[in-house]
Amino acid sequence: MKRGITTLLLASALLPLNALAQILSVTPAFPSQNDTVTIIYDATEGNGALTGVVPVYAHAGLITNQSTSATDWKHVQGNWGTTDASVLMTNLGNNLHKIEYHMPTFYGFGSSVIVQKMAFVFRNGNGTIVGRDPNGNDIYYDVYPANAGLIAQFLAPETTQLISSGDSLEFVIAATQKSDFKIYDNGTLVYQDSTKQDNFYLGSTVGGIHTVVLQADYGTTTVYDTAYYAVQGPLNVGVMPSGREQGINELNDTTVFFKLYAPFKNRVYCLDRKSTRLTS
User: Fold this and answer.
1) What is the DSSP string of 3-64?
2) Which residues, in sequence order, are CB contacts of 107 under 8 Å at separation 6+?
3) Of 22-26, 55-59, 68-72, 243-247, which range is least confident?
4) How many distinct structural domains can be found in the chain?
5) Angle of CA points 273, 275, 278, to nearest 5°
6) Distance CA 270, CA 62 (A)
7) Containing domain of residue 81, as a range?
């Protein structure tokens, strides 16, 4: 049976969107496996467990062509639970911590290895406090072939984020070559520049999902990337019909009424498989 869903907004908030900023800032933005890389870890992001902790140690590995799964670390660096100087990060202040290394030297991989991702968690000296991603998982960063051609992407936001009407959200763009960038917000050109990496802010008073498309031109090559953000629309407060029970109330073959009690909240979003966890 195919059903539509009619919902009553009861002033609550079940947000399907991650308010995730950059956990890692990596230079170069699109590293290859023979590069020297600079990793800056923001301890306030991800699970935030290491906020205010000094010093911080990296626990680092690789996902390679020899890994048996997407989480099978190889060439792991760092002796867990010890103050290992080889993975001690430099404290930059403001909960930012840096480590820099030449990838082949640091990880010690051979010529037959193809590196696909760098893998990290971060810890205090004895390993009792661990910084991970917002879901408690390991943190990964892509590694690219040395001759991959033009790559251009949004580096931030990393996930769809929900903002209030009139607020703004930072976007970070980067490419492997200085390129002619155009950025479109729901089809409207909102940014244009020739650059290799830049940041700018977008916001709107128009509620709903905003599709942000990146177009990067370098010579005869054009690449695209897409990001999303959502703007909260006007709050629609209705009158609760009598006789409705908590949960789903089936009204007929095509309509259900959903009642949810959620005190001290402001908004609720009713999601189904078609919504792909984006607010509308």
Assistant:
1) -EEEE---S-----S-----SEEEESSS--TTSEEEEEEETTSTT-TTTT-SS-EEEEEEEE
2) 60, 61, 62, 75, 77, 115
3) 243-247
4) 2
5) 130
6) 39
7) 31-142
